[in-house]
Amino acid sequence: MEIFRGGKLWIEKKKIQLPNGVEKDAVIVHPKGAVAILPVTETGYLLLRQYRYAVGQYIWEAPAGTMEDGEDPIETARRELIEEAGVAAGNLIPRGFIYTTPGFTDEKIWLFEARDLTPSDEFQKDADEVIEVMDVTRDNTDAMVTDGTICDAKTICLLHQCGEG
């Protein structure tokens, strides 16, 4: 049974049967697919310091965004990199995907490493985005993860996947 449908997600409640035979009611959130991209520079990475209203604060994160209908992950990655970080990638390397919180959602975020960056004339943040783009050195990102400054899961995954330079 559908509980809610919005622009970027829908929520359903349904009876499920677990592999051990137990039946239960479950609420599952179904967002559109998403991507996250780690733009690699000569000295480190382009990261965003972005205000996130759901947590009521600025957080450090990799550029990311939701897939449009009919768009594949690599197209979304190219578009979001330009929209959020103002750069285009000469080379986008797929780095797998993650499930964000599989206890209640089937959200999948496709991960990409972006190299051979060039400034883009198409840079245009969405009106509801409050973003600063920062070039952060590799050493600084390591320290920022360790001290909790970077606490965004998709970004930590990307730094782990792509952090070897």
What does this structure look like?
The protein has 165 residues and is an alpha+beta fold. The protein has a domain at 33-91 and 109-162: Alpha-Beta Complex (Nucleoside Triphosphate Pyrophosphohydrolase), CATH 3.90.79. 19% of the residues lie in helices and 47% in strands. The protein has 3 helices and 10 strands; from the N terminus they run βββββββαβββαα. The chain has helices spanning 73-85, 138-146, 153-162, and strands spanning 2-5, 9-17, 23-31, 34-39, 44-52, 57-61, 64-66, 87-99, 108-119, 131-137. The strands form 3 sheets. Strands 7-4-9-8 form a 4-stranded mixed beta sheet, with helices on both faces. The longest helix is centred in the middle third of the chain and has 13 residues, at 73-85. The termini are far apart. InterPro entries: Nudix_hydrolase, NUDIX_hydrolase-like_dom_sf, NUDIX_hydrolase_CS, NUDIX_hydrolase_dom. This is NUDIX hydrolase. Keywords: Hydrolase.
Please render the helix and strand layout as text:
Layout: E1 2-5, E2 9-17, E3 23-31, E4 34-39, E5 44-52, E6 57-61, E7 64-66, H1 73-85, E8 87-99, E9 108-119, E10 131-137, H2 138-146, H3 153-162
Parallel strand pairs: 4-9
Antiparallel strand pairs: 1-2, 2-3, 4-7, 5-6, 5-10, 8-9
Tell me the β content: over 45%
H/E series: EEEEEEEHEEEHH
Mean pLDDT: 94
Global geometry: globular
Largest sheet: 4 strands, mixed
In DSSP terms (H or I, runs of 4 or more residues), the helix count works out at: 3
Structural class, from helix and strand content? alpha+beta
Helix content bin: 10-25%
Q: What is the highest CATH level, the class of the domain at 33-91 and 109-162?
A: Alpha Beta
Distance between the first and last residues' Cα? 47 Å
CATH architecture of the domain at 33-91 and 109-162: Alpha-Beta Complex
The whole-angstrom Rg is: 17 Å
Kindly report the CATH topology of the domain at 33-91 and 109-162: Nucleoside Triphosphate Pyrophosphohydrolase
Q: In CATH, what is the homologous superfamily of the domain at 33-91 and 109-162?
A: Nucleoside Triphosphate Pyrophosphohydrolase
Residue runs with pLDDT of under 50 for 5 or more positions: none
SS elements, strand count: 10
